[in-house]
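Notebook entry, structure prediction.
Reason for the run: the old model in the group folder had no record of what sequence produced it. Starting over properly, with the input documented here first.
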Amino acid sequence: MTDSEPGGCCRCCCSFIFTLGLTSLFMWLSLRVDNPKCSVQYFYLPALNKTLGLNTSTNSTLDFQLSLDNGNKDKGIYYDAVNVTFHDNPNRSLSHLMGDYTILGFYQGHQKKAKKGGSVELNRTLLSRAVFPNGSAVFRVDMATRVRFKILFWKTKKYSLVREASVEVNDQGIKVNKKGIRLNSSAPQPGYYRALVGVFLSSLVLISLNFGIF
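New structure, fully documented this time:
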């Protein structure tokens, strides 16, 4: 009997390692989340449309629409109020705030897309200065909100989501890029990954206790 004990111990260890590996993989796939993909889908300034005969001294309205795409297969997203700001220059150090718009907070189910936007009155003076002689212009769009993810039956704490993009507009007041313009992050958002690592490590401790390792 004593000769078989080392083999039994080895099998137990291999079984533990195999189970731990499968559990680790399952936990990672279950808890891993991706930030929503955000983009500018529509951007129109009637005052810059030469065919309408308008000018920025009488009309400074901007019509816009954002797309927010939750690509997570089984995680929902709760958004706080989404603050969207518009600036007269893509260079942050040279830009000025022309106007802002607030989108009310909402919940987005897994693998769902949301179209959010509206109309906002921009600063007429800044808008006039931003237009190039050929009638085109380049603006910066900033988006800021706080989100939390719904994973199974629990929710993460809130994390900041800050995005920005440069939008080039032609002499018809429409964004040059016909496709959506991706709003990118200027810095990584690692907060929720730290939370998931904490949950993962806690799970490993529980598994180890069940196997009598500690």
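Summary: The mean pLDDT is 83.
The old model has been moved to the deprecated folder.
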